[in-house]
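Office hours follow-up: a student asked to see two folded examples consecutively, so here they are.
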Amino acid sequence: MAVLKVTDGSYSNIDAVDNLIFYIAARSEISGGWGISMESPESVVSEFRAVKRFWNKNGGRQVKHFIFSWDGRSGLDMNQMRYLAAKLTLFFQPRYQVFWGIHLDTDNPHIHIAVNTVSFTDGRMMTFGWRDWNEFCEYKDHVLRDVERQFRLRKAI
């Protein structure tokens, strides 16, 4: 069974972006993103910060952290997990920079998602309330059905 959760850390410290991006990158089998160059973890951090500087939004929550996990083996191969990660993060892509990584170093494979809290399109800070969470959960369910259909999976993700 798959579980989506948002971490409850404040991520408001000055090095929150650095810490999360480097953590995700260091343990990832594969990573990707939207609105970033993906040249290196340093470039991802630099680009997240550049958006914050451009819009003069350097305070408050620096990054939003989501984790998509399985309670055991996922039954997906790496290509299928990459497809799932990219599709899940499209939810944020129209407005926010996103970096994701797939970790296979535990008994529970999982996808970490880091989202810049400042929109590169209009500089608005991300407010991720219950309505947003419900929309993301509905979107996640749609993506899971798409992945099952796309890869003709017999077992639900």
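And the second, which I mentioned at the end of office hours:
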Amino acid sequence: MKEIKWAVLGCGVIANEMAVALQKNGKNIYAVGNRTHEKAAAFAEKYGFEKAYGSYEEMLQDDGTDLVYIATPHSHHYEHALLCLNHGRHVLCEKAFTVNRKQAEEVLALAEQKGLLITEAVWTRYMPFVKTLHDLLAS
């Protein structure tokens, strides 16, 4: 089974929390994209991402990226989700998914048309304690 190469779109507070969660869970943190290369490079160095990009489009053109976590302000989720999907990337989008139902329906329709996964990030599912809980239940 191929290991998923994660990318993070945006470098704000919530992106930092997700990067820590990805690290703790041994995920392949591959690329980060931001509006400025300097911020992306600092983020990449801090969390061990292989690549840093100074634009979202540039990051999405990297064919090494499998799944993008959108960590920008929710007012931009619609635009960024469409951008990711149109570049053939699966998407985990921070909440709120979009700002209204019409946007959500458009994003979901595009994902279905392209055969891509898009879902809202449900933090509890991706937090380190979930692995602990699964391990406990398995024992």
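Two things to take away from it. The chain has a mean pLDDT of 90. Residues 75 and 99 are 7 Å apart (CA to CA).
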